[in-house]
Design brief:
The chain is of the alpha/beta class. Among the domains are: about 180 residues, Ribonuclease Inhibitor (Leucine-rich repeat, LRR (right-handed beta-alpha superhelix), Alpha-Beta Horseshoe); about 260 residues, Phosphatase 2c, domain 1 (4-Layer Sandwich). The chain is globular and about 105 Å long.
Length: about 725
């Protein structure tokens, strides 16, 4: 009567026979044998179960699957033989007429199998193999929905084959990599995978940007909607842009992560009223004022999506799940009079007290994330981002141990997903594995008295990492092992100060003897990122660009001249910080409005009964209905339109937070007016100027600057 058997994650080397006699009465339908030590000798014993529908034998020691044995499993519908050493899939798979899923990634398959001849086939995963070509029939199977060919470096597809495969709903193939001209190894590389659940709905999404904002930052994320598709898709499309905007406002890790989640909660709109989703974001950045400095990993999560870092072979959790078992969360929810059902859910909806969406449960359920930052060291080998389905099936220790010796990030993510499914996960799964290669020359060990920690075991000793500057219009392309089906474009906001900072010292190091007994040389040991600067010499800092001249454009030596407030010089140009505001601020007292950060968002408060508060300033403190800013907040109407028009002519604000002088127009780009149209154009320009003057005069008559009304009519 046995129909279902899961013997995964053991040390099995053999299987028992189905029966002692020649006649078999087995009705076994599902057999899971993943992560054992089974060899080719076990395959013939499978023929004693002719009614098998699902067979998982991933991550064993199979080197071949005999064709005669595959032919006898005619009722097979799903097979997973990933993580073995198979060089081919038997052609007798054609006898399995009901086959709809073939998963054979992380093998040594060289010949494309004849799975495209199966009429019921829906999903084929042949990633991380050694395929060189693909043989396709004239017409693809009508039910084919997914084909994964990533991680095959030798695979070359012609134009006709690509056109045919692009008709598949989900077709994944490696994008051509631009490569690094310096030939230096990358500091990080990633791979990700996604798998739908039993209901064939993909309720998870992944975000991966190896070059985020500039080529020394990265952003990764995993989003889980539990049973809805809308929220993970919105988070995947929007969250990176929000984070890029918040990075321009503050450099504090906890602040910009919390603000990102709060703004995302507002941007979910109607989709976030009744639906919700878990999210985890990991941001790798470096100090923009120290281009060769340490890297910082910041993780923020809500719900049950989590991150774990492998440091020296041991798991280091970077996330936290806020559920009813947390005493502080339980106390907070009871204060808001929420209903806690028997299964530990808020109003019977969700067991996570901090999650995106579910705004109808506010304030019991809030989007405030758990944020943790850590400095990356050479001991850090990789980190894993996973959805709820992954961590429900695997512990963090098991996940780290499973992929620690897998050299490829894509193969590591695939392995995690396969193990979770074989261990009984029926939900959608998403996993992102980011492998790190932090060298000693990009790690500050000043606090360790200059003694760097030992390098991790799986990565070889590498040379100094040198990342070339990327042009402003170039998008980062994923590597061949990244596992990206399509290029995820992110907003490029290269910091002006970090990429164009110059040096006024010579390129050659000072020829001064380093003597520890000398009074100019302190006894403190320093790392190679922050060497000791001598009192009688100028130590040059690492920079991305080098300028030959030792003087700035204003003709003053930047070492000898006292810096002027609001003026920045980098050896190639002068940048001036400008503040354009209403001139009435000199006459009237400015109202300081306290801004409070809370779990629910940003609250602007003003005390009406405070003595000395100007009556005319009430509108600035209370009237929040008006013009909408770019970040979604609302700004009050301004009456000084003429000053705003003047401000629009000012130079655009750079992403680094400074104003730069506008570039001179190129003569080739100037508009040339034909002689026969010159008079007509002059007449049009004259009329346009007269109209502008009339509008300004009308505005000045309508809203005189010397009188402000006590209240205003707003659009609402």
């Amino acid at each position: 009567s046995l129909r279902f058997l899961n013997a995964s994650a053991n040390k099995l080397e053999m299987l028992p026979p189905a029966t002692l006699s020649e006649e078999t009465h087995s009705i076994l339908q599902e057999l899971y044998l993943t992560n054992n030590n089974l060899t080719d000798k076990c395959v013939p014993l499978l023929t004693g179960h002719p009614h098998l529908k699902i067979l998982h034998m991933a991550y064993n020691r199979l080197q071949s699957f005999p064709a005669s044995k595959m032919a006898k499993l005619e009722e097979l519908e799903e097979i997973d033989i990933s993580g073995n050493k198979l060089k081919a899939i038997p052609t007798t798979i054609m006898n399995c007429r009901r086959m709809h899923t073939v998963i054979a990634h992380s093998n040594c398959i060289e010949v494309f199998p004849e799975v495209m001849q199966l009429s019921e086939i829906k999903c084929v995963d042949l990633s991380c193999n050694e395929l060189s070509e693909v043989t396709l029939p004239e017409n693809l199977p009508p039910k084919l929905q997914e084909l994964d060919l990533t991680g095959n470096p030798r695979l070359a597809l012609d134009h006709k084959t690509l056109e045919l495969l692009n008709n598949i709903r989900c077709f994944k193939i490696d994008q051509p990599s631009a490569g690094d001209a310096s030939g230096a190894p990358a500091v990080w590389s990633h791979g990700y995978t996604e798998a739908s659940g039993v209901k064939n709905k993909l309720c998870v999404a992944a975000l991966s940007a190896n070059n985020f904002c500039d080529n020394r930052e990265a952003l990764y994320g995993v989003f889980d909607g539990d049973r809805n598709v809308e929220v993970p898709y919105l988070l995947q499309c929007t969250m990176s842009d929000i984070l890029a905007e918040e990075l321009q406002k503050t450099k504090n890790e906890e602040e910009y992560m919390i603000n990102t989640f709060i703004v995302m909660q507002r941007k979910l709109g109607t989709a976030g009223q009744k639906l919700g989703g878990s999210a985890v974001l990991c941001h790798i950045k470096h100090d923009p004022m120290d281009p060769g400095g340490c890297f910082t990993l910041t993780s923020a999560n809500v719900g049950k999506c989590q991150t774990v870092l492998c440091r020296n072979g041991k798991p280091l959790p970077l996330s936290r799940c806020y559920v009813m078992s947390c005493e502080e969360e339980l106390k907070r929810i009871k204060q808001h009079k929420a209903i806690i059902t028997e299964d530990g859910k808020v109003n019977g909806v969700t067991d996570s007290t901090r999650i995106l969406g579910y705004t109808f449960l506010h304030p019991s359920v809030v989007p405030r994330p758990h944020v943790q930052s850590i400095t990356l060291t050479p001991q850090d080998e990789f980190f894993i981002l996973g959805s709820k389905g992954l961590w429900d099936s695997l512990s963090m220790d098991e996940a780290v141990e499973a992929v620690r010796n897998v050299p490829d990030a894509l193969a590591a993510a695939k392995k995690l997903c396969t193990l979770a499914q074989s261990y009984g996960c029926n939900d959608s799964i998403s996993a992102v594995v980011v492998q790190l290669n932090v060298t000693e020359d990009s790690f500050c060990c000043c606090e360790l008295n200059g003694v760097p920690p030992p390098s991790p075991g799986i990565f070889p000793q590498s040379v100094n990492v040198v990342i070339k500057d990327r042009p402003a219009d170039a998008l980062g392309m994923p590597s061949s092992s990244s596992g990206m089906a399509s290029e995820i474009s992110s907003e490029i906001s290269t910091s002006e100060m970090s990429s164009e900072v110059g040096s006024t010292a010579s390129d050659e190091p000072p020829q001064v003897a380093m003597n520890e007994s000398s009074p100019a040389y302190p006894g403190e040991q320093r790392c190679m990122l922050h060497p000791v600067c001598l009192s009688n010499s100028f130590q040059r800092q690492l920079s991305s660009a080098t300028f030959s001249s030792a003087f700035s454009d204003n003709g003053l030596d930047s070492d000898d001249e006292e810096p002027i407030e609001g003026v920045f010089t980098n050896g190639s140009r002068v940048e001036v910080e400008v503040d354009i505001h209403c001139s009435r601020a000199k006459e009237k007292q400015l109202l300081q409005v306290p801004v409070e950060a809370s779990d629910e968002g940003i609250v602007i408060s003003a005390n009406e009964d405070e003595p000395g508060l100007p009556r005319k300033a009430e509108y600035s403190a209370m009237g929040t209905i008006g013009r909408r800013r770019g970040n979604g907040s609302v700004a009050p109407h301004e009456r000084s339109h003429n000053l705003i028009e003047v401000a629009t002519d000012a130079p655009l604000r750079k992403t680094g937070g400074y104003f730069a002088a506008p570039a001179q127009p190129d003569p080739d780009d100037q508009f040339i007016i034909p002689p026969e149209l010159e008079e007509e154009v002059k007449e049009i320009m004259k009329q346009h100027q007269e109209q502008q003057q009339q509008q300004q005069q009308q505005q000045q008559r309508q809203y005189p600057m010397d009188h402000l009304a006590d209240y205003y009519d707003t659009p609402l």
